[in-house]
Amino acid sequence: MLRFLTGTIFFISLVLFFSVYVSPEYFPYAGLLTLLIPLLLIINGIIFILLLLAKRRLAFLPLLAIVIGWKFMGVTFQLNPIKDNPKGLSVLSYNVHLLRYAKPGGDNKTVTQNITKWLQDNPSDIKCFQEFYQDFTTPSRNAIKALATDSGYEYSYQIIEGNPRKRSYGMVIFSRYPIINEGRVFDTKRNNGVIFADIKVDKDTIRIYNAHLESMSIPSEGLSDLDGIKENYRETLGKLKRGQVIRATQLGVLIEHMKNSPYANVLVGDFNDVPYSYTYFSLRKIMKNAFETAGRGFGFTYNKVLFFLRIDNIFYDEVLQIERFKTHREVDYSDHYPVSATFSWEKPLRKVSLEELD
């Protein structure tokens, strides 16, 4: 019985570990299965300890599972050293929740003032925002004026919905350096999309991608207790499955666009996917992740009931060197926390080749 149980857990672990390479376009439930990976790692660890204490040779199976799944440890938790005064190009990414997020009982106006002040004071050279709201009709809501025009930043604002001369929302990239080219990779005409800007930094040019992939649409308020979970689990699973499939399609478009970029790429944003996903591992195969190379702790970026999610990321081409990465968990003005990174590179900056991406 013990052999059967250990062998079964080992087999399930292998299936889950390799399911991150299976596109949800072909198997929609692959993305849901990967959510069990942390649990399987814990179970294998417990079984290994118990078998080891019992001096059973069977302990090699859970140990082998842990070794094979070790990469998931790195995407979950890091203890990289922190540099106090990093030098280089600093990039900030933040889902700002239309600049008016308020917790229950909170004051929308106060939150808007606070988040605007924090964004103005943040010294990052490049600032990328998702769910950005712009209102040209109300001076106090003119975010582009407050965060770009009055703060010395150039900007690329790609509208998803609204009137470009009045009120609208979309995605924006602010830059202290000249923006020589800009555009959108795609948008969903709802709330999601990917935009880019080519930014001239001294004699080099770097391409910044700002992404907001298909939302998970998880009703987190309805999952705050057992009754809520029972009531909403079918709807939630359906939304998760649908989101996984759409993100896989969006990811294909994005990766193809990045491969055709003439410059080194930095990809930031709200990916609406956990590290144990096809989205994350497809990007991890061609780029480095700033949390993994320079982060500390768990790096959770979601500021709601499901607080244990890390769905905001910064990826970068291997020709860049990461100097620092930080999750700003002290900044709770949105349902996401900001993330930032500082990069340096050897000059002149070399573009990574398509062969290297593959």
UniProtKB/TrEMBL annotation:
The chain crosses the membrane at residues 5-23, 29-53, 60-79. The keyword Mitochondrion does not apply. Its cofactor is Mn(2+); Mg(2+). Keywords: DNA damage, DNA repair, Hydrolase, Magnesium, Membrane, Metal-binding, Nuclease, Transmembrane, Transmembrane helix. InterPro entries: Endo/exonu/phosph_ase_sf, Endo/exonuclease/phosphatase, TDP2-like. One of its GO terms (molecular function) is hydrolase activity. Residues 92-336 form the Endonuclease/exonuclease/phosphatase domain. The keyword Transmembrane helix applies. GO terms for biological process: DNA repair. PANTHER family: TRAF AND TNF RECEPTOR-ASSOCIATED PROTEIN, TYROSYL-DNA PHOSPHODIESTERASE 2. This is Metal-dependent hydrolase.
